[in-house]
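Async update (no meeting this week)

Hi team, since we skipped the sync, here's where things stand on the single-chain job. The sequence we agreed to prioritize is pasted below, unchanged from the tracker. I ran it this morning and attached the output directly underneath so nobody has to dig for it. Comments welcome in thread, and please keep replies under the output.
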Amino acid sequence: MTNDLVGNTKRSRGEVLFTVRIPRERALLSRFDDWHTFLNRSIGVPMLPGETYEEWSPCFDAIRDNWDERELLDRDLPIDQWPPDLRAELEVSRESIFDPTTWGDDSPYLQATVQQLFSEEVVRAVRII
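Output:
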């Protein structure tokens, strides 16, 4: 994980990396990869509790292929203009990004999001050079 952080900071020169301490109840945890699935307007295919990657992968491929075929028709429209069934399917699948039982073991990248960060919560700030 440390190597990933170091590698990613190379693309962030001039920015600031904060270390913060915030109350857990203010943080919304999600799996980084799942969050970006939705930012890219794609459907989430969560792992079932206890499901292995080998069991999940074929199901993922089938669901995503089907989604891609149906979504291509509306890709350029704002989501609120998509057909109701397609939009509802996307919105329901988003719920899994906040459910740790669906995250599986294939990605160590979790992210915490807070609505507001207060200066007294900043433990350290380092400019990336």
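Quick observations from my side:
The mean pLDDT is 85.
The chain has two domains: 1-27+116-129, 28-113.
Reply here if anything looks off.
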